[in-house]
Amino acid sequence: MTKKTNHNCGGVAAGPAAWSTFASVSDPIRHLYVHIPFCARICPYCAFYKARANHSETEHFCHALSRELVEKADEFEIVPETIFFGGGTPTALTTPQLELLLGGLREQLDLSALREWTMEANPGSVSARKARVLKKLGVNRLSLGVQSWDDDLLKLLGREHDSKQAEESFRILRDAGFENMNVDLMFGLPGQTVQQWRTTLEKTIALQPEHVSAYCLTYEEDTEFFLRHARGEFRQDSDADGEFFEETMSTLQEAGYDHYEISNYARPGFSSQHNRAYWSGEDYLGIGPSAFSTSGMRRWQNIADYREYADRVFDCRSCIHTMEELTPEMKRAETIALSLRTNNGVSAATLEPFTKQAREFIELGLLRESNGRFILTAAGKSLADSVAEAFV
């Protein structure tokens, strides 16, 4: 059972019009996402909702997060198997603020089924004390946003850390007892060479993280990099990106990492359980500004403004900004697109309306069939988005 706490908003915290649509929800929520938007510095390539950290407001924001969680626990049965704190930079919060937030979450929820609790961290906001507190409060997986081990590229990306600080942060987290760590990396950066990328991969492997996420840079709207790309300062080279991707696959797999999703590699037993829940279409609840939630055939997103978000929560008003009803066709398209990205692939039953296309991709060497499932080949992984589009 989810723990309950008395509060002022009662059962109408999110507004009757919004929450009456959830009256039929009965299955427990097993996956919880918490969005912390604050960053010490705004990276010019990042399109996620974020804001400069303002210590005069962050504690108030933490109380709002705790309040929203209490209200959601009145509407849903929340028994999380995975929790993910993302951002932004969750570790941009002070140690006392993290103690307040994580301690409150432990008091409010039944964590008896919890298997994985991930916290995203930037090297510039890691300390030995903070690491010990996170470990003590139950976080058991850290995702460190290194991006590159090349200092010039880190400057280009607007990161607040250098390679030396990133390595020190990794070791601090190890010394605190974290035995499940992910390193986030990026390739396809302006001016980046394959040799620079190979060096970054080798440096990462030498540190022996349990998990590596390697993403190709995309030029997202509402970012400085998008504007520079539009002006012709930066150019995207799909052939070069393909070479980076192939180098990533071969290097990490040779080092013993399982390529279990297009952008993710893990030692046996260390794949991200939270992300696997997303990719398999399970329900999840998002807390915080801009956070998405999906329950059954409904999806909604909180407002992407941390000040207004907090005001609405404390005024007992809905913090939902958008809501949509999903159709069976939408769910099927999502299932195909997400499942194809994983090493489990997609079931033949799901692709039954597209048997002809599936057979054509097998002939082209982009798909293979195994135990009633269609799975991308190594060549297919390089063209995953194009293959998925043929089925939706």
Can you tell me about this structure?
By secondary structure, this protein is α/β, with parallel strands linked by helices. It is built from 15 helices and 17 strands. The protein has helices spanning 16-19, 55-75, 95-108, 128-136, 151-156, 163-175, 194-207, 224-230, 238-254, 273-279, 306-314, 328-340, 355-363, 378-381, 384-389; strands at residues 29-36, 38-39, 51-52, 78-87, 116-121, 141-147, 181-187, 211-216, 258-261, 264-266, 285-287, 292-295, 298-302, 320-325, 346-347, 367-370, 373-376. A hairpin with a 2-residue loop joins strand 16 (367-370) and strand 17. It is globular, with a radius of gyration of 21 Å. Mean pLDDT is 91; it is low at 1-7 and 10-21.
Give short descriptive properties of this protein.
single chain, about 400 residues, alpha/beta, three-stranded antiparallel β-sheet, 15 helices, globular
Write the layout of secondary structure elements.
Elements: H1 16-19, E1 29-36, E2 38-39, E3 51-52, H2 55-75, E4 78-87, H3 95-108, E5 116-121, H4 128-136, E6 141-147, H5 151-156, H6 163-175, E7 181-187, H7 194-207, E8 211-216, H8 224-230, H9 238-254, E9 258-261, E10 264-266, H10 273-279, E11 285-287, E12 292-295, E13 298-302, H11 306-314, E14 320-325, H12 328-340, E15 346-347, H13 355-363, E16 367-370, E17 373-376, H14 378-381, H15 384-389
Parallel strand pairs: 1-4, 1-11, 2-3, 4-5, 5-6, 6-7, 7-8
Antiparallel strand pairs: 8-10, 9-10, 12-13, 13-14, 15-17, 16-17
